[in-house]
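2 proteins. here.
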Amino acid sequence: MRSVFDNLFPLAGRALISFIFILAGYNKLMGYAGTVAYMQKAGVPGYLLPVVIAVELGGGLLLLTGFLTRIVALLLAGFTLLAAYFFHRNFGDAGQFVQFQKNLAIAGGLLFVVLYGAGRWSLDAKLR
């Protein structure tokens, strides 16, 4: 018999990982002009910001609810690695290095979600 933790932990893990994407997407939406300037300073075209917001907010919400979870987790892992490369590769700056490592850890956690799925308390499981 499965324990409650077998059901709770995948949900908790998805919630904890999705929170950073939902909050980041919301903050970019609220600080749109500043985010465009930051992106352009890093050499990323500002016109990509709506895509970034959609990936972060939409992907975060899909991950949280456990809908299309493996696909979303894979896309978010790739997105997170790209963000690490474009925005956190100045390893001479200790803060940037920590952000780079954080992105690697998030991508690693997302790869576990790709492998193991959303768990029983998810829309994916309900729709199966």
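next one coming up
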Amino acid sequence: MPSAGRFVGALFFACIAWFVSEMFKPLLPDGTNFGKFSEYNAALGAMVGWAMLGLRSHGSRNASISAGLTASAALVFWALFLYSVSEMLKLSLRKSYEGPVEALVGVFQLMIEHILLMATPEIIITLVVGGIVAGMVSGWAERRWA
């Protein structure tokens, strides 16, 4: 069911995801084809904000902050997982894996590689502060217009 908290959560997390994606691009190797990397992450951020943050941020201020931090962690997990699966599929078409189990393990290896690239203070602070602010504003909007 649409609500103000869900809308605000989706809007804030779309912005956070786009901004963090732009911060992550310089950390990848030169010549990387990004395509619509930031736009896809913004869409993923909107889905996470709608489904996770908007659903759970209507309680107290502490519950809203907790929901925002949880949504930030979920956004990072799903973005890393989806892009690692995509990269694994590209590598498997080049016959880089000997079998399906090795390809499945490759997904998690790629996730670890990307999380280590992403673990910079700027990105971590952006995700934490953005999650807290998004949670508080989403909770306020839910309480205000419920």
